[in-house]
Amino acid sequence: MKNSTIARPRHRWLAAATALVVTGTVVASAARSSALGESDIAQARAATADYHRVEAAEAAGYGLPSAGPLHECISSLDGMGAMGYHWINGTLASDDVLDAAAPEALVYEPESNGGLRLVALEFVVFKSVWEASHTGVPVLFGRPLKLIEAPNRYSVPSFYEVHVWTGKHNPDGMFADHNPLVSCEFGS
Predict the structure, then answer these.
(1) Contact 142/34 with Cβ under 8 angstroms?
(2) H/E run at residue 83
(3) What pLDDT score was predicted for residue 20?
């Protein structure tokens, strides 16, 4: 009897200690992942600070050969916000590299005064290019990128993407595709 009485408290203590270690490891891992994501976001903001001026973005290779956005100002299909105009860097968009300091697209919101405001960065890699040299889904900012299959409303091949709302708060989240506070009302 003595042995079973002693074994039970030890067993409970061991179970409790194990639970604490596992919980601590999960919390620490989540904190590291969050810290890495925040560090990458800070890096992205710093690397794109000059691109608040569209002319600087175009000088750095963003925009079509004739300069300007890839498509019209993109609004959500359900009318709940928008993305804006996308200035694409073709060199970056055609490779299989994802770098927090080098977004493939800069997203601008048209303003009432005719200007453009840098509201988000978009990181993109085409599915076929990624899968030619990688396995699994691409990850950036501590999160997997979203797959947009073809055919799609952008008329491009299947691609992975993530938006990062570095220039305008997004109540739907830092990494949501559309922002309810962004509008294409003043777009042409």
Answers:
(1) yes
(2) strand 82-88
(3) 36
